[in-house]
Amino acid sequence: MSDDSFLDSIRFSVTAALSLLAFVTILVGGGYYVYRWTAPKYEEAQRETYEQSRQHVEGTVEDLMRYRVKYQEADSTHKDAVRKLILRRARDIDRADMPKDLRQWVEHLRTRTDP
Length: 115
Known about the structure:
mainly alpha, membrane, transmembrane helix, transmembrane
């Protein structure tokens, strides 16, 4: 084997190794940026799906009913804090998904009128 062919084979090997390294770097880096772009959209879609699920709606309605009891049992100093919590939780679901009496009670709280 001549020196020129040996140097050519080393150059070819180094070039191939550097090309492979560059390709892997681009592939991994590109995958990271694709993930960075798509992950928030995927998480948002999952969150919206969960918020519209029957499980979430029923759980929120049950929480609101428990808070209703706590509100009625609270003294005047704590009622405002419980009221704010109830109104925040009530925003999580569509009013049409609430039972009529609960919906009316939440509306009364919004207008600051005790039921």
